[in-house]
Amino acid sequence: MKYRVGNNVICSILVVVISAWAGLAFPAEPTYNLTHFLKATDPVKLPASESIGTNGETIAHNIHNAQWDAPLLRSPEGFEALRYAYEHQLVDKNEFLDAQDYLQIQADFAAPETEAFQILVDKGQLPVRVPAVSVKRVFYTAVADEKQPPILISEGALAGEQFGWLTVIRVDSGFFSKYKMSKNTFLPDKRDRWGDILKLLNRKLGDKRQQLLYWYEFLEANMPELMSVRSTSDEGGAEIVMGSIPLYLAYIKKTSEHFLDFTPLYGQLDWNNLIEMRVAGANPGTIYHPNVTNNYFYPHHLYGGASAFVRHDLKHHLILGIFSESHRRFMAWMHQQEEVILKKMDSALVDFNKQGWHDKEVVYNETRVSGTGMLGSLCHSEQRAHSHLRTLLPLKHYWAKPGNHRTLFPGSFADSAFSRSRPLYPQLSVLGLEAWSPSVVNWRHIFLDLLTNQCADAGYYFSASFDLYHALLEEVLTENRSYIWDTFGINVEEILK
Length: 497
Hints:
Elements: H1 12-20, H2 53-64, H3 77-87, H4 93-108, E1 109-110, H5 118-122, E2 130-139, H6 150-155, E3 165-171, H7 173-184, H8 194-204, H9 208-222, E4 227-231, E5 238-242, H10 245-255, E6 261-266, H11 271-279, E7 282-287, H12 308-319, H13 325-348, E8 349-352, E9 362-364, H14 373-376, H15 380-383, H16 412-415, H17 421-424, H18 443-457, H19 463-479, H20 481-488, H21 492-496
Parallel strand pairs: 1-2, 6-7
Antiparallel strand pairs: 2-3, 3-5, 4-5, 8-9
Helix pairs in contact: 2-3, 3-4, 8-18, 9-12, 10-12, 11-13, 13-19
């Protein structure tokens, strides 16, 4: 979730809260309403107006009877009607998420039956829409087995229940062909990390609509249980088959030892909001509403429209299933320590090297190098291999605000942005996951992945910055090894070996 790259100064209240996270007990079932983190001035902050009560009752009836072509489920007015129905308990959370997902997908894909959603673009409430031939809801039994998301096969009886409905999108063939041509001109080196690839794609796929399609392909590759994206034979078009969010949440709950509450929320959160929720046993599912003033459309720098964000959050939800409460508190504590480290780096910065911008380096008034092999050489081995990237993207793509180190090192500890989920527990198969225990978590692998992703986000640019950051991080870990073991049950020596 790197979208949560808020650069807000931590207020004194939050500092107190963060400092206490290691020891506080939080409720087992935290409650966050849809508008919890919206500003008081946001027009959606107040409860849905009673004047739309009839619409709320109608859309609830439509959902309960699977009337997916009903007017409110085929128009942007459905967003507010659905909010009313949820706030007044006319639909439960699963029903809300299922219908919300359906509305968001229709907002993103411009087909004849979704024409009503074009007003969102016309009014500036949504940037773009992807050309499509059709967007329909079908029950899974009407779809050929080979086209069904595998989760339907893995869940057996559950697939035959209410949430066996699929959303099937037929993307316009001409547009999909252009997308494929644009993407195929971008051939990243197999060594390139996630951060590099996304930033290069942002430059190569300048059309936001193409970026949204890339998100769907990426999500399929990383969440094959939930969806499929298949090229069709008619002039290079594509069919996207989407499983329901409630079905996937049931799958995560079944296969995770530490299941968090998946909480739908409007608007953009910052890192501190995210940490607060995860320590409390909840994980946000970012959803769209036309009237929210801070809808966020760019997770990980790429346009995700109204619909991709919540599915991106589902991937994080799956990963977080390996973390116990003490592990989540450790990540919150690490985020707090990182805030201190980055402020030290802000103060220590002197200037940039004045050579050509391809060779820029940062000068600090102190020089430290990590004493361990793991942290000390983490990014150095990759810098030469990635030197070609410096000719492709300007400095601002890697350091948005030079001098502010939070914009060089995004909040990986808050985000839990590690991607090697399966190597962490290789004995688990894709569809036959069994519950695992905290002893399976390999913190050395997690740190390696988190920090290497940070290097990638920074384009492997700044050796001096990496050296100082890793040295200060190692100091925090070594000086607090006893505290970390006593409080979180994590062995620092295993991380730094």
